[in-house]
Amino acid sequence: MDNLHNKSESAAAGEVPESSLHSHENTEQVLHAANCATDEIQSIALSDAGISRQSIAEDLKYSANMSTLSEPTDLDKNPAITEELMDITESNEKDDSIVCSPSREDLGVSTPTDQGPLFKTIPQDRETPASTATKKLRGRKRKVAEDDIVVTPTKAPKTPGRWKNGNLARVYNAKVKLSYADYVSLKVGDRVLSCGEGEQLGHPGRTTTKKPRRVDIVEDEGLKVVQIVAGGVHSALLTIDGEVYMCGINEQGTVPAIGVEAEGSTDKFTKVELTNEMRSQGKIVMLAAGASFTAALTDKGSVIVWGNLRDTSGEINVHPLLTKMKDHPVVLIHYKKRVIVKIAAGENHLVMLEEDGKVLTFGDGKMGQLEYMVDEDGRSLILILQDKRRRDIPVKDIHAGGFWTMLVTDDQVFSFGLNNFEHLGIPIKGEAPTDASMEDKRELRILTPSVANAYLGRKWTHIDGVQHIIARDLNGEVFGIGKNTDNALGLGTWTGNDDSEHWKYTTLERVQFPPEAGKIAGTTAKLACSIAWTESGDAYAWGCDTSGQLGLGLKDDDDRVVPKPQKITSAHLDGYKVISASISDNHSLFLAIKK
C-alpha cells in the first residue's frame, strides 16, 4: 500500500506590553470618533482622545460616515468570532509600539492575488524582531487577554481595501477554546470483534474470519475499551485508563508492542509500553491510524507518533522525526508548546486540531493533503485559515482519509488533496478525456483549501473514505460521493464495468437503509468498502468484500459486491450492541457492549 506525508512546528508568539495599549475610556472615545458623521467632528473627537490622526487621515477620508465599521459582516455574525477591537495609536510612538504579528514579507509568504480563503505557513525558526521586544509596564496596570489587543506595527502590514495604507489595524478575535472532550467517545465497550484477513485480526493462530469474531484478550483480561482503530497492516485498542494494545505487522515500528521483534509481527493484542517521557505527556485519550503508522493524543494536548510514514516511492525523510518514529514512539507535538484536541489520519498523513481552532499537518503531502507545498526541511506544520480580509476562521472539526483532508468551520467545509473522483466536493477543471485509453492531463489535486460546495448545508459528524467518501450528518442521515464502481456508495445503481453513467457521483447521494435500521449512529469507510452502525446497535456493510472485511460471511463463490447496506450478523454479536466500528482495506474492528 503506497501512500504519503511531511512537516514540523512553527514560531512562538511574544507577549504584548500593556504600555502599548490605550485605556478603556480612550478606546470608547476612539470608537465614538470613528462613528462621527463628518470629517470635522472626527478631528475634534480624535483630538479629545489625545490621539494623532496624522497617519490615519487617508483611511478615515474614504467615507464621511464611519458607522459602517460597526455594521456586522458575515463573519461578525459568527458566534465564534467576537466584536472587532479597533485601536489607533500615534505613528511616531515607536518606543511603545510592537509588531502584533509578522507581515507576510517577514513570514516569507507572498501576498495572494485571489480573493478566496488562504492558509499561511509560518516557519518555525522565525524570531520576533529585537525592536518589538516587550517593555515593563509603568503606571496603572490592567489585565489584558493575550489575543484581545491591537497595536501599531513598526511597518504597516499590507491589507486589502481601505486598510492598505494607514496605521488603522483591525483584529477579529476567534475566542475559540476547544477541548478533546468534545471529540472523544464517552462509551466504554467490553467486547471487541474483528473480521477479515491478517495477523491484525488479533486471533492467535487464526488469520481469516468472514464474520465478526470476539477478541479473547479483551474479556479474559477485563479490558475496558473506549476506541478501536484499524490501520493498513495493524490494529490498535485504547482502554479507558489510556493504555494501548496492538497487533499486526511490525513494519518499521508499526507495532512497537512488548516482545514484538523488529520487522516481525504478532497475532495477539499486546500492550505498547511507553517510556516515562511519553507518559509525562499525559494519558492517551484518542488514536488515529494510517497505512502503517499510529498517532496518539493525550489529555494534556500532546501528540505521540510511531511507525512508518511513506510516499508513493516507499519512503520520505524530510523530517528527522520520520526516521525516529520507525524505531520507537516519539513526541510530535508537546503540550507546553501547543495543545491539540483532535487528530485524524489519512494513508500517510496526520491532521491535528489545536484548541484555538488552528490546524497542523504532518507526513507526506505530494497529493496536496497537507495544503502547503512540501518543503525540504519539513519544519512548517501550522496553517491559519483566513478569509479575504485576513480574519482568522477558526476550524471546529477535522477529517482525513486516503490522500485528502477536510476542515469544518461554523458554516463551511474546506477540502484539499487528491480529488481524482471529485469526492472532495469540488469539480475538476477542464474536459475529461473522451477515450479511456487517453491520458488525463487535468490537475486532479486540490492544492489549497477550497470550499467544498457539495458538503455545505449540513453538520457532519463522520467523513471517511479513500476514492469514495461516506458521510453521516447530525440527523443520522448517510450520504455518499465519488467513485461508485463495485457499488461503493451503497446506492445499488452500478451494473458493471460497462456502466458509464453510475460509476461516479459528484454530488452527495442519500444512502438508504432498511426501515428497521433506524437512526444511523456512525460510519467508517476505506477503499470501496463501508460500514455503518445504528443507535440500536446493529451494523450494516456494503461495497466490495475482498477479504471478509465487510463481516457478512461471504463465501468464495459468492458475489463479492454488496450493492446496498446489508445487516451484519454473528453468533459473537448475539446479546451485544455495536457502538463503534473501524474498517481498513483488509479487516474491520467492532466495539460492542452488552444489551
UniProtKB/TrEMBL annotation:
The keyword Repeat applies. Residues 1-26, 92-124 are annotated as: Disordered. InterPro entries: Ran_GTPase-activating, RCC1-like_dom, RCC1/BLIP-II, Reg_chr_condens. Keywords: Guanine-nucleotide releasing factor, Repeat. One of its GO terms (cellular component) is cytoplasm. PROSITE patterns: RCC1_2 (PS00626), RCC1_3 (PS50012). Residues 192-590 form the RCC1-like domain. The keyword Repeat applies. This is Putative D-tyrosyl-tRNA(Tyr) deacylase. The lineage of its organism: Eukaryota, Metazoa, Ecdysozoa, Nematoda, Chromadorea.
